[in-house]
Amino acid sequence: MGSSSDVPALRRGLSVLRLLAGRPGPVSAASVARELNLPRSTTYHLLSELTESGFATHFPEEKRYGLGVAAFELGSAYLRHDPLERLARPLLRRLADRMEKVAHLGVLNGAEALYLVREQPRQPQTIVSDVGVRLPAHLTASGRAMLAHVSPAQVRALFPSVASFVDRTGRGPHNLPALRRLLTTERRQGWAVEDGFVTAGFASVAAPVFDHGERPIAAITLTFRHVCDTPCGQTWPELAKEVRKAADELTTRIGGHAASG
């Protein structure tokens, strides 16, 4: 077993890896030292060890460092274990049972919401959003819960024209300005809702799950029967409270941090 004195070195090495992973391209050792407030000698030692073990790659002509093959292999192994779904499933199970509504875990896939996990309450309900189903992100509560926390430029890139706005029931945002207004409201509110935007007679409440960089990585949703002739403006705060609690717990489980604002 290593001594307790090894722990700070391990933490510094992991900080270097996180920095390399968060950059779009290779960075210099001087930049690493400056951003992490490390002595240059320590930085070069850490980069040398990471390079030797395959977690970093040195580009001698550029005098820069990037992620190595071992980091890719580790990331691939992580994905094979389906950690997000495994950590979310018991939370969704409890949420569905407690609220007697269908609970989902969804992620953004381009301009669509992709559903990874669905948990039924004790009395099963038939709804359109099953595992593997993709739905227009601007219409779904789960999609907008995540879109509310990405940059305006990313939203514009996903929805570049009016043709990008699929219509299913006549409800929901039909253009970029309307979507942006709705995202602003839902970001301030802390959760997203949809009332018959996807399927007439059903509504949903969703809250985002964040990664360690405060980026929206997924959303937890409750879907339930709700019939009204026109959008009635309900936001279901009591349901949202439970959904947000589950989303916050999943954020904590994956080592994430909720967006600061």
Question: Please, could you describe this protein's structure?
Answer:
By secondary structure, the protein is an alpha+beta fold. It contains nine helices and eight strands. It has helices at residues 6-21, 29-36, 40-52, 69-80, 83-99, 141-147, 152-158, 176-189, 237-253, and strands at residues 56-59, 64-67, 102-109, 112-119, 134-136, 192-195, 202-210, 216-225. The strands form two sheets. A six-stranded antiparallel beta sheet has the order 5-4-3-8-7-6. It has a two-stranded antiparallel ribbon with strand order 1-2. A hairpin with a 4-residue loop joins strand 1 and strand 2 (64-67). Helix 2 crosses helix 3 and helix 5 packs antiparallel against helix 9 (237-253). The chain is elongated, with a radius of gyration of 22 Å. The model has no long low-confidence stretch (mean pLDDT 89). This is IclR family transcriptional regulator. Keywords: DNA-binding, Transcription, Transcription regulation. Residues 70-256 form the IclR-ED domain.
Task: Map the helices and strands.
Layout: H1 6-21, H2 29-36, H3 40-52, E1 56-59, E2 64-67, H4 69-80, H5 83-99, E3 102-109, E4 112-119, E5 134-136, H6 141-147, H7 152-158, H8 176-189, E6 192-195, E7 202-210, E8 216-225, H9 237-253
Antiparallel strand pairs: 1-2, 3-4, 3-8, 4-5, 6-7, 7-8
Helix pairs in contact: 1-3, 2-3, 5-9
